[in-house]
Amino acid sequence: MPTRANKLFLTKLVHTIIFISMSLALVYIFYGGITRTYNWVLFSAIGAILVEGAVLIFNRFQCPLANLARKYGDKKGSVTDMFYPKWFVPHVFRVSTVLFVIGLVLLGFRYFAS
Q1: The domain containing residue 48 runs over which residues?
Q2: Per the CB 3.0–4.6 Å rule, which of 13, 60, 77, 101 could disulfide with 66?
Q3: Nearest to 26 by CA among 65, 111, 18
Q4: pLDDT digits (tens, 9 = 90+) for 74-95
């Protein structure tokens, strides 16, 4: 039977996998804009970012996995303190939002400029 520490580790690991997936989606959006690649992968990446944004908006800009982290013993409910540098964590939402908007603008510009 998994311990609370193991469950907390798995919660943070799942969060990290989701974060990496969202980061790859952002990179692919830029790739699509630079190369004029408009395919199902691009639209899936945009959809994934939009779904993640909606989840965060409906959860008052708090990751839903934070409640699980709290349940499994993290006093702050932090799902980021194990795998990310502390200086990076407070800026993730702002940086990701700016990159997403820039990526969409690049996609639109490249699409209509052709």
Answers
A1: 4-112
A2: 77
A3: 18
A4: 877 676 655 677 787 778 888 8
CA nearest neighbour of 6 among 61, 72, 50 = 72
What is the C-alpha to C-alpha distance for residues 66 and 72, in angstroms, rounded to an integer? 10
Range list of H helices, 1-114:
4-35, 40-58, 65-71, 92-112
DSSP state of 90: G
Question: How many independent structural domains does the chain possess?
Answer: 1
Tell me the CB-side half-sphere exposure of residue 20, using CA atoms within 13 A. Answer: 8
| Alpha-carbon span 97 to 40, nearest angstrom | 22
Q: Which two tokens stand for residue 60?
A: 């008052």
What whole-number distance in Å separates Cα of residue 42 and Cα of residue 55? 20
| Cβ atoms of residues 8 and 76 within 8 Å | no
Distances (CA, A) of 23 to 17, 72, 114: 10, 26, 27
